[in-house]
Amino acid sequence: MLLFDQLVKRRGARTVLDHVGFEARPGRVTAFLGPNGAGKSSTLRILLGLDRADGGSALVGGSPYRSLRDPLRTVGSILDGSGAHRSRTARAHLAWVARSNGIPRRRVGEVLEQVGLADAGGVRVGRYSLGMGQRLGLAAALLGEPEALVLDEPVNGLDPDGIRWIRGLLRRHADAGGTVLLSSHLMGEVAGLADDLVVIAGGRIVKTGTLAEVTAGFGGLEDAFFALTGGGDGAGR
Ligand SMILES: Nc1ncnc2c1ncn2[C@@H]1O[C@H](COP(=O)(O)OP(=O)(O)OP(=O)(O)O)[C@@H](O)[C@H]1O
Predict the structure, then answer these.
(1) Ligand 1 atom with minimal separation from the 235 CA
(2) Closest of 8, 4, 7, 38 to residue 150, by C-alpha
(3) Ligand 1 atom nearest residue 12's Cα
(4) ipTM of this predicted complex?
(5) Is residue 206 within a helix (H) or strand (E), and if so which, with residue range?
(6) What are phi and psi of 22, to 5 degrees?
(7) pLDDT (tens digit, 9 = 90+) per residue, 17-57?
(8) Which residue ranges does the record assign to the ABC transporter domain (predicted)?
């Protein structure tokens, strides 16, 4: 379970997160939807201990990320690409992440297989396409077999096959009891995948609910999204 409660973040005089509160529950895929600049990455960065909130809390299974004993075994994440050095091979990168987190080496081969990079594990990351980089980021997120996955714009750079593949992977993770939270600024991507939607605009949560609940009274998710987010104007205040 991922729980955000009254989260406030200020940057200078601007409030970029204004009492953001929602939850992502086990067994569900939760999509965090909003236009560019709405506050999705800021929210996820606080959850993952990369940034501090000015108010409120963000908890992973009841604890702040920084106090987790085994973070990679609790929550796997993708933020800002794979984080791998260009001169390293994918296998070497994953082996390093595994070693520094006490994760058995055998997991490296398993996750490469799981994300469809088994044949590209020996290739330097600098030669990877955008889509391969996304797969590598997901491999690192899966290394510790975490209960929760937190993915910032995971389908960016994936082709239609890749999008179908990641949908299946996230669906299986949730069906096995895991928690999945993914952000997106493209509603079409999440329509066929998410159980629950959380819509943010201008640093405020404007709607939460199931796909049916969020789209009720609108022509579809796209109409709902534009109506709720004010036509895509997500610039904070
Ligand atoms: N390091 C920073 N310094 C100053 N302002 C920032 C910083 N990071 C984000 N912001 C601002 O905070 C607001 C929220 O940005 P954030 O990246 O969280 O939005 P987002 O919903 O993830 O958008 P995108 O889809 O473009 O990544 C924006 O107005 C952005 O310009």
Answers:
(1) 29
(2) 4
(3) 4
(4) 0.90
(5) strand 204-210
(6) -170, 175
(7) 999 999 999 999 999 999 999 999 999 999 999 999 999 99
(8) 2-227
